Amino acid sequence: MQRIRKGDEIVVISGRDKGKRGTVLRRVDAEHVVVEGVNRVKKHQRPNPMKGETGGIVDKDLPIHVSNIALYNPATQKADRAGVKTLEDGRKVRVFKGNGEQVEA
Fold it and tell me: Residue 76: which residues within 8 A CB-CB, separation 6 or more?
């Protein structure tokens, strides 16, 4: 089970964007995610009339490794690790390691 999923609110815990919060937009692969407003770079893009794209300098969010981010726990207002817990009916849910509450997402 993926501990960090699309739509989760996260906090960057290391790197040049340390301390920033954002929402996971998509998973690139098993170890990389794209987060809104994190790891943003300026890309010089050429115009492509076939696709209708204009040229210029555009801001782009690049993938970040999952080891550099942690889930944001709204109860404690801090970054927290996620674990997996099996309920009585057999379903697996994600829980915060800090306080044991279920992750809503």
Answer: 98, 99
